[in-house]
Amino acid sequence: MKKQFNFIRFDNINEFENWLNKEVVTRKISRLQVHHMSLPNYTTWENTDKRIYKDNRELGRTKALDDYGKNKWNYKDSHNHYIAQHFNIFPNGKITTGRSLNSKPIGITGWNENAICVEIYGDFDKNKDIMTTAQKQSVIALYALLCKKFNIKPSTDTIRAHCWFTSGGVYLGDYYANKSAKSCPGTNFMDFGNSRSAFVNNFYPLIEDYLSNNSKDSAKVVKMVKNISGEKLNIRSSPNWNGDIIATLNPGDSLTYVSGPLSAKGHTTKMYKCKNNSYVTASSKYTKIITVKN
């Protein structure tokens, strides 16, 4: 953990959790916003930020975002910060603070009251940046810990993408390219996208799984990929439909889930990554995610 410019950098999720548990928040929090920065993106991270801020990229960029806010909207919080968001999540998984949690954000017109704004560094539209594993893990953990802190159940009522709103703040309930204010947090956000169904079927379950797996009974909970078809499924050594087949998964059998669904080479159908670097189809026709106790 490092403090500079009146911001804090958390080098791992445990540091963030310990800090969050001690924070006294007097403002009602019932909403979590999901954003990507778009620009700066991963190219900025590896070039401009590395050149200018060197080994202090996270706090250096956070200070730059604060300076931008002062020049752009000049709306400060109780700590004299002008940055729009409360937290930033970087490609290496590190997190920085932004606005005071007791000050509402400048995130989504019409949906800032009682909200926390989180900005994820990068551009996650299709064919742009591919989110790193470290950043994905921090994204899921941060939202889960905020849900735990403020007693929020992940749903379309409580956690919303910026792109589900018009520029004027009208809630659309989903992403519409011709109506939404932006594509934020990206049409390929976390490999599953920015749509309502992507959040319901992927993002919210990931947050809930984190909460379950990090509870007192976490050792008893395991997430599995089950073969629900009536046929054997190929297990491959990489997310590549033309890759090596290393085994088969019998009907009714399961593999220990690791991540996904992930984009796979050679086909539009995505794949789940399972234990021991094995991959199997993520098609709902053949597999489903189950949670079991062991």
Helix-strand layout with pairing:
Layout: E1 2-4, E2 7-10, H1 13-22, E3 31-36, H2 42-46, H3 48-53, H4 57-72, E4 87-89, E5 95-97, E6 115-120, H5 133-150, E7 159-161, H6 196-213, E8 221-227, E9 233-236, E10 245-249, E11 254-262, E12 271-274, E13 278-281, E14 287-293
Explain what this protein looks like in three dimensions.
The protein folds into 2 domains: 2-213, Lysozyme-like, CATH 3.40.80; 220-293, SH3 type barrels (Roll), CATH 2.30.30. It contains 6 helices and 14 strands. It has helices at residues 13-22, 42-46, 48-53, 57-72, 133-150, 196-213, and strands spanning 2-4, 7-10, 31-36, 87-89, 95-97, 115-120, 159-161, 221-227, 233-236, 245-249, 254-262, 271-274, 278-281, 287-293. A 7-stranded mixed beta sheet has the order 1-2-5-4-6-3-7, sandwiched between helices. Strands 13-12-11-8-14 form a 5-stranded antiparallel beta sheet, with helices on one face. A two-stranded antiparallel ribbon has the order 9-10. A hairpin with a 2-residue loop joins strand 1 (2-4) and strand 2 (7-10).
At a glance:
The chain is of the alpha+beta class and 294 residues long. It is 25% helix and 23% strand.
